[in-house]
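Continuing the series of single-chain predictions for the mutant panel. This is the parent chain; the variants come on the following pages.
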Amino acid sequence: MSYFPSERARSGQLSSGLLSKVFGLVAFSLAFAVAGGVVGARLGPGWMWPLLIGQLVLIFAVQGLREKDGLNLVLLYGFTFVSGMTVGMIVDAYIGAGLGSIVLQAVAITGVMTLGLSTYALVTKRDFSGLAPYLFMGLLGLIVAGLIGIFVGGGLFQVVLGWAGAILFSLMLVFDVQRAKYLPDTMGNAVVIALGIYLDIINIFLSILRILGGNRN
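Parent structure:
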């Protein structure tokens, strides 16, 4: 998932202060996610749905209260911790199935992709703001396909879904990083953009896991 704000106006000037805030928040968010992953790895599958519902509540809370200094950070890090618990459960399932090497490969590939795509978004002069409605429609389509995937088995379907997710969230990452270059330098903007980038990275990771593990039991 990613976040598309109602305001899409660009200031026309590079917002280096906002970039610094965003990347700092993303780094802390990933740290909280790792901590949550350690906790989540010890939970049973019965926790999955409560955690997913909690994430949805926290996402809306972060977006709605983004201008509440202090509280917005608590909500952001609370969300990343809870989402990390969910990812931790998924990673633990792969490791339990003897696919720990796939997890390490997915982490490495995600890191390289994140660095490469973020660098491209920062240096390119191409404007990706017009992609917003198409990315949103693609996200909705991916969610529907994911729900279908719960009931439709098969490694091929999972691999196709993984490739679709990897491509979509790669574009979202470029879109979100580029937004951080030009939006006004406020903590509210930093929080919601950091949330979007964090979600892009996590979903790229999960998509790569699906690709690498799609043909294995």
